[in-house]
Amino acid sequence: QVQLVESGGGLVLTGGSLRLSCAASGRTFSGYNMGWARQAPGEEKIFVASIGWNDNSTRYADSVKGRFTMSRANAKDTVYLQMNSLKPEDTATYYCYARTALSGPYWGQGTQVTVSS
């Protein structure tokens, strides 16, 4: 089972940027499709972005397209979420996840992102 630890959250003004990181440990990172989801207070956890293992293909929620970019560094067992042009509605706890066709998703503990207007 893979363990995930997120970092990089914080408080930022509207229009600002943050880069989230998610480091994997416990077993090899390879073979896992990775993603990010977020959960605002009182709301359900929703998909934000994902990246494929075999072709690095990315998918994004419509609400973040053109502003967020997900990437992975397999040699470092780490994925990133570059968030630009942040808006107050991006405020949430961001969770990293890992999954394969047969296992997961496995979740990290989350990192808080707060965008102040």
Give the helix/strand layout:
Blueprint: E1 3-7, E2 10-13, E3 18-25, E4 33-39, E5 46-51, E6 58-60, E7 68-73, E8 78-83, E9 92-99, E10 106-107, E11 111-116
Notes on the structure:
It is a single chain. By secondary structure, this protein is an all-beta fold. It is built from no helices and eleven strands. The chain has strands at 3-7, 10-13, 18-25, 33-39, 46-51, 58-60, 68-73, 78-83, 92-99, 106-107, 111-116. The strands form two sheets. Strands 2, 4, 5, 6, 9, 10 and 11 form a seven-stranded mixed beta sheet that branches. Strands 1-3-8-7 form a four-stranded antiparallel beta sheet, with no helix packed on it.
Shape: globular
Order of helices and strands: EEEEEEEEEEE
Helical region count? 0
What's the overall average pLDDT, rounded? 93
Structural class: mainly beta
The span between the termini is 40 Å
Report low-confidence residues grouped into runs of 5 or more: none
Characterize the biggest β-sheet: 7 strands, mixed
Q: Classify the beta-strand content into a percent band.
A: over 45%
The level of helicity is under 10%
Structural descriptors:
globular; 117 residues; 52% strand; seven-stranded mixed beta sheet; four-stranded antiparallel beta sheet; 0% helix; mainly beta
Structure at a glance:
The protein is mainly beta and 117 residues long. The protein has strands spanning 3-7, 10-13, 18-25, 33-39, 46-51, 58-60, 68-73, 78-83, 92-99, 106-107, 111-116.
